[in-house]
Amino acid sequence: MEMVFIAAAIIIGMGALATGIGFGILGGKLLEATARQPEMANQLQVKTFIMAGLLDAVPMIGVGIAMYLIFVVAG
Amino acid sequence: MKSRQSRITHVPLARWLIIEFTGLFIISLLWSLHSVLAGYSAFIGGLIFIVPNAWFVNRVYRYQGARNAHLMVGNLFRAETTKIALTAIFFAAVFTLMEPVYVPALLFTFAVMVLAGGALRWLIRPQPRR
């Protein structure tokens, strides 16, 4: 039973770590690029938004599977 | 003031929601051929994606323009955190409060909606107005 919780913790933790790194790089690059070319700010925001949607796809599915493990398999 | 307003990006949130709900209804109907339980489980799986994602879009586009870049990035991080937290809460609520749930339909529809949502934002992009 404990292994299920450990598996869920690893899924959520790794997903959070990867999303955090990805969003940190994404936000940093957005600020950097906006500082270089302020007139491109709106287009850069659109591209950041699209990349954010792609970036969080896998962690979102991971959260769903982890909740299933915690509340259905272990519960 | 006028030139500032004309640079605001138009976010096609209504179009996205209409397409997402149409896709969700089709997937739910297909699952309901299996059973009614699978049909409504699939519908709930789609809603678990759509509601936090609509919140995310609403928060991300609260600030625009180069002057507000730091607010934009801060909002992006907060919106993403809230989105993942809302998704986890909704999943936990469904698994604990809804007694008969067909889990394969729920998770499959959620995964399809997540992937389709990313593709939809790629295909129908917000248009920066000049």
Protein model, in words:
- The complex is a heterodimer of chains A (75) and B (130).
- Helices cover 89% and strands 0% of the residues of chain A.
- Chain A has 75 residues and is an all-alpha fold.
- In chain B, helix 2 (13-32) packs antiparallel against helix 3 (36-60), helix 2 (13-32) runs antiparallel to helix 5 and helix 3 runs antiparallel to helix 4.
- In chain B, strands 1-2 form a two-stranded antiparallel sheet.
- Chain B is mainly alpha-helical and 130 residues long.
- Chain B has helices spanning 2-6, 13-32, 36-60, 69-97, 103-123; strands at residues 9-10, 127-128.
- Chain B is elongated.
- The A-B interface holds A 12, 16, 19, 23, 26-27, 30-31, 34-35, 38-39, 41-43, 45-46, 48-50, 52-54, 56-57, 59-61, 63-68, 70-72, 75 and B 7-9, 48-49, 57, 60-61, 64-66, 69-70, 72-73, 76-77, 80, 83-84, 87-88, 91-92, 95-96, 103, 107, 110-111, 114-115, 117-118, 121-122, 125-126, 128.
The best one-word shape of chain A is elongated
CATH architecture of chain A: Up-down Bundle
Pair with the biggest interface: A-B, 38 and 39 residues
Helix content of chain B: over 70%
GO cellular component, one term (chain A): proton-transporting two-sector ATPase complex, proton-transporting domain
Site (Reversibly protonated during proton transport) (chain A): 56
Protein name (chain A): ATP synthase subunit c
GO molecular function (chain A): lipid binding; proton-transporting ATP synthase activity, rotational mechanism
Question: What does this entry show, briefly?
Answer:
The complex is a heterodimer of chains A (75) and B (130). By secondary structure, chain A is an all-alpha fold. Chain A has 3 helices and no strands.
Features:
heterodimer; A: 75 residues; mainly alpha; F1FO ATP Synthase; 3 helices; 89% helix; 0% strand; elongated; B: 130 residues; two-stranded antiparallel sheet; 5 helices; 2 strands; 77% helix; disordered N terminus
